[in-house]
Design a protein that fits this description.
By secondary structure, this protein is α+β, with helices and mostly antiparallel strands. It is 48% helix and 22% strand. It contains 30 helices and 34 strands.
């Protein structure tokens, strides 16, 4: 594995400069706030002081106006108190009034600054005037008179028009009553001078809203304020300032708060004092005060600049001190930081060389950082070594997993089964190539869809539902984590419905992964068809398609278990063997199918019809009485007579012998009932007047039935307790009298110790269905003995019954016993009688061929008694032909037997089969059979049967 990749170089600002920059910003903000607060505080103090000064100026001006009004009223009172004036007014002598006023006018004008003196009588007529210039009609003279006369007290008022004049009206009293009124007026020039002296400011007097007809000075007009200047000081400097201020702020705001503005390099303050005593509602008078505040403003600016300088100096000093403190530690930090890229590159040795090897006792954070960096270098070096090793192992494991993945993918795609991986909610995540090909769909059409939408399709109409859940316990509907089996119907791309057996299991997953499920499906359509065919074969006779013996016995047993009542009819075709031998095996088969079809078409709806074997049929009739059973038997006779079977130009009359047994009267088991019906059938064959026989009519039927039951019980006990004995009769090779071949003969040991020949129980065993277990018992014990005898070259011949030819499990049983015993199958010879072979030729041929495929040899027993034996001799896969003993024994007395025996020997030799002569019981027969080329002989003359144990010992 490569070392750590180096980090890309980046332009960066060192930590020291970052700390300095951030602290500088913080200090700068603090200094700026400090300066702003200082400036704001000074400005606020200045504004507060100016507001206080403004309020003080307003009070002083109002007080000056009040003093001026009081002084004017006193002067008016002195004028009105003149006795000469009162006398002249009382007499209405206007000349005397003028004389009196002129005598006082110089002192009033020069000393008191009075501008006008008026005298009025009580009717408001002007009787005296001294230097009046203002039109009297603009003054509310009558109102003043009424007011003064009513109160008999002086009044003062202010009126602003072309200019502002103070008026004082005083009543003229004589003899306790008012006879007229004296009015004095004076301008505000004295008040203006006094205000200028008190405030030290430039003063202007302005009247707003005046609409008089007098001509006004346009130069003193201020349109923005709708006023004109009545008086002002320092006109050249003051008038331009007022014009500028009129453009900045309304006049009424100056009465509340002064206006500051720079002008001509100075800082000036303009304020207004509203003259509240103005009685003329048409106009308003204001005193305008212009103060120079340059000194105070400059002082504030100087103080602010001083704060700014001090703040900047302090900020720079703090930054320099901070840099001095940080430079050393930051240099160490930069050194450690410079080593980190080397750590990333894997230069651990170089990093350790540039770091202090020991940590000081009084360590700080940087010392701890250096120590941690040194430790980190050691750990990273160790980690890199470990990672390199593990990376190599991981790469090998990845390659291994990749190979396993490729193998699994190849296995999935080559497997000829459906493989589907889906999530817990059933959504498909993966399918193999076989699934895609069978469905003719791509992954894009399958991935993400639900499993049941694709693979759980309803079968077409008429096809039964076969989908079912099967768990290991056989309980349906298992949970997700339990492996399941089920069968579903799937329609493939070619529109064929097939049966798929699904095997589900949950894939292992951890808690963080979603549980997945894998489903493997096998197309079992052919197997299902085979199973259905096998089921059909297990229950049906393949030749006639009727039920077979097994199904009939099960149905009969089921009827007995349900306590049903009824009858069984067992019928056996008459002269079937002759038809088979005369016309051939295929004609016999055709006859059996004709009989089966006739019975099924006429009686199939109310009975169960079966072919028990050969030419033997049976009918199960539930819910019928004996009379009805007899009627049905008669009906069957009529049906068979009406078949009219023809073959090779011959017309055969078809009839059958029928035995009738009632249940449960004649047996509690199916075997007992079949035995009873079989016995009744043989009684019918013996009868000459009717084709059926009801068992209950036989006088000794019960005894015969008891005898059959007795032998059935004996056979069961013998099978369970191994009470049979095997006897061996030698088969001698005639050419040299050598004995390597024995026929196995069965004997039943009676409880008293005697041996019972098979002629007494074989027929009952065949009727009761015990002949197949009997055959198996003989095969098993013969193979056990053969495992020992085969070392001496001895072969054993075992007889198979006709029913064993229909045993579907015979092949598997032989295979298992051969493996279990270890016997050589070549030393085992299985014999089948000619009668059994003729009765069901195809079955016999298949069984004999199956036995030969296992390695065993076969023989045809009792050959020659049939009329058509030579016809099928070459078609049967047998190794030995055993000539029936009736022909051998009659060779000395019957010339026909010579012809038959010689013909059989010649034909067998022509087919490559060896012959065995049975029942050779005297020496005179030996030359004859040797002359005819017979290979082997068997009989009491050549050797009697001996116990198997004797041969094993010897």
């Amino acid at each position: 594995m490569n070392r750590f990749s180096p980090l890309p170089a980046r332009h960066r600002l060192s930590l020291a400069w970052r700390v300095t920059a951030l602290s500088s910003l913080l200090l700068f903000i603090l200094v700026a706030l400090f300066i702003w607060f200082g400036h704001h505080h000074l400005t606020q103090q200045f504004e507060n002081s100016r507001m206080a000064h403004h309020e003080r100026q307003q009070r002083e001006i109002r007080q000056a106006m009040q003093r001026s009004a009081d002084n004017l009223r006193q002067l008016a009172s002195l004028t009105a108190s003149s006795s000469a004036l009162g006398t002249a007014l009382a007499q209405g002598d206007t000349f005397a009034i003028d004389s009196t006023l002129r005598s006082q006018w110089p002192s009033l004008q020069l000393e008191a600054g009075v501008d006008e003196v008026f005298v009025f009588d009580t009717q408001g007529r002007q009787l005296g005037l001294s230097d009046g210039s203002q039109p009297i009609d603009e003054l509310p003279i009558q109102g003043w008179i009424n007011d003064v006369l009513a109160r008999e007290a002086p009044i003062t008022t202010l009126r602003c028009g072309l200019n502002c004049q103070q008026y004082a009206a005083v009543p003229i009293l004589m003899q306790g009553g008012s006879i007229g009124m004296v009015v004095l007026s004076r301008s505000l020039a004295d008040v203006t001078r006094e205000a200028k002296e008190v405030s030290g400011s430039e003063i202007a007097l302005m009247v707003t809203g005046y609409t008089g007809t007098a001509t006004l000075d346009v130069a003193r007009r201020l349109p923005e304020w709708n006023g004109h200047l009545v008086a002002l000081t320092n006109r050249d400097a003051t008038l331009p300032l007022l014009e500028r201020a009129s453009h900045i702020a309304p006049i009424f705001t100056l009465a509340d708060r002064p206006l500051s503005l720079p002008y001509a390099g100075r800082y000036l303050e303009l304020s207004a004092v509203y003259m509240e005593d103005d009685a003329d509602w048409r106009s308003t008078g204001y005193f305008l005060l212009i103060s120079d505040v340059t000194t105070q403003t400059v002082a504030i600016q100087n103080a602010t600049n001083t704060l700014l300088v001090l703040g900047v100096v302090g900020w720079l000093a703090a930054e320099l001190l901070l840099l001095a403190i940080l430079l050393g530690p930051m240099a160490r930090l930069r050194r450690v930081a410079a080593l980190l890229p080397a750590l990333a590159r894997g230069d651990f040795t170089g990093v350790r060389a540039k770091l202090p090897q020991q940590t000081p006792r009084l360590s700080n954070e940087i010392d701890v950082l250096e120590s941690a960096t040194r430790t980190l270098a050691n750990q990273l070096e160790h980690l890199e070594t470990s990672v390199t090793v593990h990376s190599s192992q991981l790469a090998e494991r990845i390659d291994e997993l990749a190979r396993e993945r490729d193998f699994v993918n190849s296995l999935l795609d080559t497997a000829q089964v459906f493989i589907v991986v889906h999530s817990s909610d059933g959504r498909i995540q993966r399918v193999n190539a076989y699934t895609r090909s069978r469905l003719a769909l791509k992954d894009s059409a399958l991935i993400g869809r639900y499993f049941d939408d694709i693979f759980d399709q309803a079968p077409p109409a008429g096809l039964p539902m076969t989908s079912r859940f099967i768990t290991k316990e056989g309980v349906p509907s298992a949970p997700l984590h339990t492996p399941q089996q089920e069968e579903k119907i799937l329609q493939t791309a070619d529109k064929r419905c097939c049966t798929v057996a699904w095997y589900h299991s949950t894939l292992p997953a951890n808690s963080r992964e979603q549980a997945l499920r894998i489903s493997v499906g096998l197309d079992i359509t052919e197997r299902k068809a085979a199973e259905e065919r096998l089921t059909w074969l297990a229950e049906r006779d393949p030749l006639t398609e009727l039920f077979n013996r097994r199904y009939f016995q099960d149905a009969l047993q089921s009827a007995l278990l349900h306590n049903s009542e009824g009858a069984i009819v067992l019928l056996d075709l008459d002269q079937f063997k002759e038809i088979n031998e005369l016309s051939g095996h295929h004609v016999g088969d055709h006859l059996l199918r004709e009989v089966a079809e006739t019975l099924f078409l006429n009686l199939g709806q109310r009975s169960i019809i079966a072919r028990l074997g050969g030419d033997e049929f049976a009918l199960l009739l539930e819910g019928v009485t004996s009379e009805q059973a007899i009627s049905i038997a008669g009906y069957i006779s009529q049906l068979l007579s009406g078949i009219g079977f023809q073959s090779t130009g011959r017309k055969h009359h078809i009839s059958a012998s029928m035995g009738i047994a009632l249940f449960p009267n004649h047996g509690r088991t199916s075997a007992d009932l079949l035995a009873s019906a079989d016995m009744a059938m043989y009684k019918a064959k013996e009868s000459t007047h009717q084709r059926w026989y009801l068992l209950s009519q036989a006088e000794n039927a019960k005894d015969e039935l008891q005898d059959r039951v007795y032998w059935v019980e004996q056979l069961h006990n013998a099978l369970e307790n191994d009470s049979f004995e095997l006897m061996l009769q030698p088969i001698v090779r005639l050419s040299d009298q050598d004995i390597k071949h024995y026929e196995v003969l069965l004997r039943l040991r009676h409880p008293d110790g005697s041996l019972i020949a098979p002629q007494q129980f074989i027929a009952i065993a065949e009727q009761s269905g015990l002949v197949v277990p009997l055959d198996r018992w003989v095969i098993k014990h013969s193979l056990q003995a053969l495992s020992t005898l085969q070392e001496r070259g001895i072969s054993l011949a075992v007889n198979l019954s006709g029913q064993s030819l229909h045993d579907l499990e015979l092949k598997q049983y032989l295979t298992d016993e051969l493996q279990r015993s270890g016997a050589d199958p070549h030393h085992l010879i299985l014999e089948v009688t000619e009668t059994a072979a003729i009765t069901d030729f195809s079955t016999a041929r298949n069984v004999l061929q199956t036995v030969r495929d296992l390695g065993c040899r076969t023989a045809l027993d009792d050959f020659g008694i049939g009329f058509s034996s030579f016809h099928y001799l070459g078609q049967l896969p047998v190794d030995y032909i055993k000539i029936d003993g009736s022909f051998i024994r009659s060779l000395l007395i019957n010339p026909d037997s010579h012809t038959i025996v010689k013909a059989i020997a010649d034909i067998a030799k022509g087919f490559g089969k060896q012959t065995i002569a049975e029942f050779v019981d005297q020496a005179a027969l030996m030359p004859i059979i040797q002359e005819y080329g017979i290979t082997y002989g068997q009989g009491f003359y050549l050797g009697k049967p001996q116990p198997l144990a004797q041969l094993l010992e010897g």
